[in-house]
Amino acid sequence: MIALAALAVVLLGAAWLAVVGMVCLLTPERARVALAHMGSNWRVQLGEHIPRAIVGWAMVLHAPLSKAPAVLEIAGWFILASSILILLVPMRWHNAYAVWWAQRIPLAAYRVLAMPTVGMGALLAYAAL
Q1: pTM over 0.70, yes/no
Q2: Residue 108: CB partners within 8 Å, gap ≥ 6?
C-alpha cells in the first residue's frame, strides 16, 4: 500500500514537472510571474514546499523499486532536505531570491529550459515505473 502510494506521488511529481515545462514553453511571462511570486506569503511558501517535500519523501520510499534506486534516493533526500531548509529560512529571503532570478532570466531562457524540464518529468516517470 505504501509502495503504491509512493509511486503515485512520484508520478504526480513527474506530471507536475511536465506541466511546469509546458507553462515555460507556451507562456514564459506567466512562468516569470509565478517564479517572482515564490515565497511571497505563507500560503505560497507552504503550497510550494510541502508538496515538494512529500514528493522527495515518496522518491526515497519508492527508490528500491525503481529502475534507478540510487538516483531516486539521492534526489529524493536532496529535495526533502532543501524544502525543509527553505522553510526554515526567513520567507522574505526566499521571495527576494525568487524575485532576483525572475528579473534576470530572459523570457527566451524559459522556453529553452522548458524541454529539459518536460524531459526530466518523463525520465522521472520512466525511472519510477
Answers
A1: yes
A2: 28
